[in-house]
Amino acid sequence: MKKAHLLLFVLFISFSCQDDVDPVHPIFDWNWVFSGYQSSWSADPTFNPISDSLYIYQFQENGSFSKTIGSNKLTGTFQIEEDQSNQREFLSLDFDDASIELHQNSDGFPLIHSCTGVSETLVFEEEGTLFGSWSACDGPTLFFTRE
Question: Which residue in 12, 38, 116, 126 could disulfide with 141, CB within 3.0 to 4.6 Å?
């Protein structure tokens, strides 16, 4: 009888440890809120924190995203990619036509923060933090934290 219980216990443990479902990526089901920036013009950039931000990204499992800056809402699709040389994951965001038009008509206040004005790249810095690549074209480095 003890051997039967031991066999059942071993079978239970072995089946319960199998992971049939990939874990959900840590970007989903969170608001990614603008938390601060660093100047790209300084040799020793200082992190400037932001509180009470109205600048938020939301990512959906179906590959769509929304970006809200105040009353402006932009949307599009994204892909999770990996930079093989740096061993880092990043998000490649492509804005839809309506969002690109909103950006182009924003009276000098950029809504899409990139060199192209049609896409953005966000990089995973550490768990719970993303940063933007706008600094490649002399914009500030923007940081977003998961809330």
Answer: 38
